[in-house]
Design brief:
InterPro entries: Glyco_trans_1 (IPR001296), Glyco_trans_4-like_N (IPR028098). This protein is of the alpha/beta class. The protein has 2 domains: about 1-170 and about 350-374, Glycogen Phosphorylase B (Rossmann fold); about 175-350, Glycogen Phosphorylase B (Rossmann fold). It has helices at about 15-30, 65-75, 85-100, 120-130, 150-155, 175-180, 205-220, 235-245, 265-270, 285-290, 300-305, 320-330, 340-345, 350-374, and strands at about 1-5, 30-40, 50-60, 80-85, 105-110, 140-145, 165, 195-200, 225-230, 255, 270-275, 295-300, 315. The strands form 2 sheets. A 7-stranded parallel sheet has the order 3-2-1-4-5-6-7, sandwiched between helices. Strands 10-9-8-11-12-13 form a 6-stranded parallel sheet, with helices on both faces. The chain is globular and about 70 Å long.
Length: about 375
């Protein structure tokens, strides 16, 4: 299979990580990959397979890249195109469906969408979906949704035929996650004994959530023997340390910054608290689930809500409610960890399963095209 994988830029780290995993996974199966970035300049490419040819169009906007994509299609004649993200989806569909004489099948991937309340009248829901889903998407040969909630919005939009849509969850759980998690924790600030360990891996987008977690620890500390470790880089790290000190948490809260191989700590945790407040599925949360660690997530996005909807040892708490988060922490550290529904759910997000799904779908689309030509 000669495949074009297209992304808009390197600025969206989540999509960049997904395209990297998919490209490397398919390249390992002897497919020839051209990885096209529409805007921006290249970053370190040492972790890409030698079978991957990187191309950087370096346009100011994704919309200006359609002509460049069309020229590449006519020159390289790929078997199929896989696009990730709204800008790339529109550019690729515009390039192939309106600018190129070579009609290559295009699979577009949707990583986000609006949330449409089921309390609205069905006609209102359909109208909202029609506005949210670009009209050009009806020309895609397949529409890959990375969440059921995204597929639901696309299905409400009657301009995209239902038979074109499918779900492939993002490849968030590495194949070697158990091997990495089994490596020893040698950091001196981590106490492997005694207290129940509450772990989170936060970032700049989760400032309010980190503060919610600190306040929940202040409420919980006298009800159970707990220690919290807030891992990961954050611009408000000093502010977090100051708040922890003001809440008299210096003795039970450690904020060490970035750590190598955080899976080690996810496995050692009694509970993992996801401080993500985005709609996408938090990668660290799903990896914690794969390792059998109970998880708590803030009910502020469709991703965590969907992942935890049918599992035990998974809690959703309202964003901003420290009391509810405290209650969930106290319940989670005492739950029965022999239950395997968390690990079973996490398998939906394994890299191997996602690459299998992409390969099967893309090859079937190529076969359909060959049949149509004959």
């Amino acid at each position: 299979m000669k495949l074009f994988i297209v992304q808009e830029s390197f600025l969206d780290e989540d999509i960049t990580e997904i395209t990297e995993v998919v490209a490397n996974g398919l390249a390992a199966r002897q497919h020839n990959i051209t990885l096209i970035t529409l805007t921006g300049k290249p970053r370190d490419l040492s972790h890409y397979s030698p079978r991957i040819t990187p191309v950087f169009l370096e346009k100011a906007r994704a919309a200006a890249a359609a002509a460049g994509v069309a020229r590449m299609v006519e020159k390289e004649k790929p078997d199929i195109i896989l696009s990730h993200g709204t800008g790339s989806n529109i550019a690729c569909l515009s390039a192939v469906k309106t600018r190129s004489r070579l009609k290559v099948p295009v699979a577009i991937t949707l990583h986000s969408s609006v949330t449409i309340s089921s309390n609205l009248a069905i006609e209102t829901q359909k109208s909202a979906a029609t506005i949210a889903v670009p009209l050009l998407y009806r020309d895609a040969d397949r529409v890959i949704c990375t969440l059921k909630s995204i597929e639901h919005v696309v299905d409400l939009c009657e301009q995209v035929p239902k038979e074109k849509t499918c779900i492939i969850y993002n490849p968030l759980v590495e194949m070697n996650v158990f091997e990495t998690a089994a490596e020893p924790i040698e950091e001196g600030w981590f106490d492997p004994h005694g207290a129940s360990k509450v772990i989170s891996v936060g970032g700049t987008s989760s400032q309010n959530a980190n503060h919610q977690l600190l306040r929940a620890m202040a409420l919980s500390r006298y009800k159970d023997n707990l220690r919290a470790y807030l891992l990961g880089s954050s611009e408000d790290q000093e502010e977090m340390r100051l708040l922890a000190s003001n809440l008299a948490l210096d003795d039970i809260v450690t904020i060490p910054g970035d750590v190598e191989k955080p899976e080690r700590f996810l496995r050692a945790a009694n509970v993992y608290v996801s401080t993500s407040q985005q709609d996408s599925v938090p990668g660290e949360m799903v990896r914690a689930m794969a390792l059998g660690t109970p998880v708590i997530a803030l009910d502020s996005g469709a991703g965590a809500r969907e992942v935890l909807s049918d599992v035990r040892n998974g809690w959703l708490v309202p964003a901003g409610d420290a009391d509810k988060l405290s209650e969930a922490i106290l319940a989670a550290v005492k739950c029965d960890r022999s239950d395997d529904t968390l690990a079973t759910r996490a398998r939906d997000f394994s890299q191997e399963r996602a690459i299998d799904a992409y390969e099967k779908l893309l090859l079937s689309m190529i076969s359909e095209r060959v049949s149509d030509l004959h």
